[in-house]
Design brief:
9 helices; single chain; alpha/beta; 276 residues
Length: 276
């Protein structure tokens, strides 16, 4: 498995598509796209995506046409920037004086960075933790894929955004790095494709007690994307029924992912809906 870290270092020349973000983007089969690299990984935080894109888009020997980015429900939630779980090798790309502003413990943040500088993971081999690529026989991971464990949505439940709920979902940290990604793509004249990935019907409602996903996305578009050039939103969240998922929000592998990739290419090329 080639890590996202190695892909970024080896990137050279014109790249038509850079696929970035959380584990949802692993559904995109880069071999089905012309001249593409997928640098997304499981449980990726938005600041990590930003710094990785900043590295690539400022690499002199690289030219990029499109960014495909996971437009997730939890995109702008507060992340634990002090104690990341296993993605420490990405710390080399961080702007630490900028990121520490969102720290809850400056001591933990500093000790974590010192430790990972002294004992770095090599080239991100810890991407092997990504359960989408892990051994199917792993008991813990098999449980994650068990659709029977996903609770059923109560259709009578009324979910509405209020200020408290919104502040839990849209943090100053998330808004800051989302705006930075948008500004970076605008400055480099790169098309930003925000993809709302397929999920099971109950996935969103297990994330919050006061949530309307449609209203959430409407607010994101109004507050962060309005009047921006070269930004496209592609919505696939209800494209598949539950039989196509390996867990509550990841598609099964094989032909399902190939077909999804083809549909993504088709919509990007044939039905672009730029935000105005």
């Amino acid at each position: 498995m080639i890590s996202s870290d190695a892909k970024m270092k080896e990137a050279n020349g014109e790249i038509e598509y850079v696929i970035a973000g959380t584990s949802h983007v692993l559904a995109i089969q880069e071999k089905e796209l012309p001249n593409a690299i997928n640098i997304g990984t499981y449980a990726e935080a938005i600041h990590q995506t930003y710094y990785k894109l900043h590295y690539l888009l400022n690499k002199e020997e690289v030219s990029i046409d499109n960014i495909i980015f996971s437009y997730d429900l939890e995109l702008l939630k507060k992340s634990d920037v002090d104690n990341l779980n296993y993605q420490y090798y990405w710390n080399k790309y961080e702007n630490k004086p900028e990121l520490i502003k969102f720290s809850d413990s400056k001591l933990d943040f500093t000790l974590n960075r010192i430790a990972t500088f002294l004992f770095p993971y090599k080239d991100g081999e810890v991407d092997a933790f990504d359960y989408l690529s892990a051994d199917e026989k792993n008991t813990t991971l098999a449980n994650l894929r068990d659709g029977s464990s996903v609770p059923t949505l109560n259709p009578s439940a009324k979910r509405e955004i209020n200020d408290t709920c919104l502040s839990d979902q849209v943090s100053s940290y998330g808004a800051y790095y989302f705006s930075k990604i948008i500004a970076l793509c605008q400055a480099k004249n790169v098309r930003l494709n925000l993809v709302r990935f397929p999920v099971t019907p109950n996935f969103y409602f297990n994330k919050s007690n006061c949530f309307s996903p449609d209203e959430y996305y409407e607010r994101l578009q109004k507050e962060y994307l309005q009047d921006k050039e070269n930004i496209f939103v592609l919505d696939f969240h209800d494209l598949y029924d539950e039989s196509n998922f390996r867990d509550a929000h990841h598609l099964k592998g094989g032909q399902i992912r190939v077909d999804f990739t083809h549909e993504l290419i088709h919509r990007m090329n044939e039905f672009p809906q730029a935000l105005k």
